[in-house]
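Weekly sync notes, structure subgroup
Attendees: PM, AL, DS (notes)

Item 1: joint prediction request from the bench team. They want all two components modeled as one assembly rather than separately. Inputs as received:
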Amino acid sequence: MKTSDLAGHFGLETIQAEFTDAEISAGYTSDLLSDVMGKAGDSDVLITIQAHKNTVAVAGLVGIGSVIICNARPIPDDMIASAREEGIALFRTPLSQFEVSGQLYAVLHGLSAIPRSDAPVANRA
Amino acid sequence: MKVIADFHNHSCLSPCASLDMSPSLLARQARARGLELVALTDHNSALNAPAWLECARREGLVPLFGLEATSIEEVHVLCLFGTVDEALGFGEYLRVRLLPLPYDRRRLGDQVVVDADEGVVDLPEIYFGAALTLGFDELCAVGRAWDALVIPAHIDRPMFGAISQLGFLPEGPYQAVELMRPADRSLAAGHTVTTGSDAHYPEHIGRRPFGIELPPGWKQADGLADMAILAAALRPELINLPGQP
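Output from the run, pasted for the record:
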């Protein structure tokens, strides 16, 4: 699965689309950026509610190429701007971190087919 | 003159603090432990500031009236004022920006507004332990716009500090940053460092004060601090941190 597959397949809203497309092999789910810095891997997608420009800086530091902001949290403009500068994809969803992590895990581990982009996505917001 | 200061203390208004922490007890213990310039900083509220003024005056302390505000990223920020009215005004501004979480005092702890003699004045129904809808950067900017001293709290704590929540301290208009372990000042990124007791229980009072060199006039005729003088003195060379000579 690639970064460019994320939005269509999981019903994510694309917030920042100027990114370098890359293979995604895993995800990392955390709202403590200190934890992300120490634990996340460079082919992860970051699943978080922490919508702050530091999220982009930490993602850049770790080598994370895409960030999914959950629970429809508002995203500040300076976060979007720095994601554009860093070429990091930014997505948003009304779903919780649990829902997004579960769906992505299932697909990455072959437990389910990639959902079709026109299929309804569970929405508990 | 060297003044012993402590910018971070809770009272019984903070749901996570001991009910024993009346402003009256805080003032008595603070004086007994040698503090002179002492802030009351309850979570997201300054409703005990009027009692704090009276209790601090009674003990000969110079009071600061503050709040420990919680950004939406759950970063704690000390906002300190020189007068009760400013702190209450800022508290009102924040109150309508708190996430409306259900408050169950049996689970989350009591929030008690008291008078200077430990009489109960009010039991607010809004949960002051919630986060605000303001992001960290906006919160700090708003604090400065209200003329507060803005000091990100315990940035080296594993929870609720700028570094735990945001990975590193963002640039911002802080007058200082608070460290729990000031021996390693590298985390402060060049900002002036203060310490604070973050007292939630009586035994915490006075555990992490700092010394600050203040010029004559810092204590006004009304017994309150001159905030301009205080802000100007928040410079590393004028501050003695715990563990330093």
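Discussion: Chain B has one domain: 2-240.
Action: AL to compare against the crosslinking data before next sync.
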